Task: inverse folding
């Protein structure tokens, strides 16, 4: 497989090609996960969108009340709406830019390494994960056009969701899983064992 290339993320995930921290790489090596292929961000990117939406919803009425003929009470409410809109925008943009430790998923040939909320790396071999795939539909734009996209969710064997990927990100991770499964199956068949 080629070295990972930088690509745009889809539906809240983004591929990054930065190398994993030394502790993550060492843990992946110790658990036989193979070479690093990509670093995904599994967090939602909705903070910036929600901030902009709040700006659009709160600022125009706030400006209208502040500048309109509504007296001191209207000006006070208008100033409060303007302040709240700007505060939500700033907080939303900060949230969208933040990359908490738990949002990174390091993808390797043989599995993934996730990080706990405290930044502790946790290895997961593909064999220790369940992969669920489905197609979702979203309404896009003012024309209300329907957009369909593929989703891949990785879960622990107990059903706990670990990471969710969409579109190209889902395809990249699915390719890593398939390559590992094929390699494992060929190895087992070569030893005369049956393959599930």
Result:
């Amino acid at each position: 497989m080629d070295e990972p290339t930088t690509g745009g993320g889809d539906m809240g995930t983004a591929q990054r090609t930065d190398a994993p921290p030394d502790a993550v790489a060492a843990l992946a090596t110790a658990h036989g996960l193979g070479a690093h292929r990509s670093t995904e961000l599994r967090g939602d990117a909705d903070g910036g969108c929600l901030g902009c939406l709040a700006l659009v919803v709160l600022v125009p009425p706030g400006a209208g009340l502040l500048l309109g003929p509504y007296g001191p009470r209207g000006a006070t409410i208008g100033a409060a709406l303007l302040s709240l809109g700007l505060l939500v925008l700033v907080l939303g943009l900060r949230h969208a830019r933040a990359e908490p430790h738990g949002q990174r998923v390091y993808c390797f040939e043989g599995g993934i390494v996730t990080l706990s909320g405290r930044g502790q790396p946790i290895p997961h071999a593909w064999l220790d994960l369940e992969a669920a795939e489905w197609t979702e539909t979203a309404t896009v734009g003012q024309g209300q056009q329907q957009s369909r996209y593929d989703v891949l969710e990785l879960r622990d064997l107990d059903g706990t969701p670990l990471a969710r990927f969409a579109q190209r990100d889902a395809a990249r991770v699915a390719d890593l899983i398939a390559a590992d499964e094929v390699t494992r199956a060929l190895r087992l068949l070569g030893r005369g064992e049956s393959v599930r």
Notes: The longest strand covers residues 129-140. Helices lie at 22-30, 46-67, 71-97, 167-190. Confidence is low (pLDDT under 50) at residues 1-15.
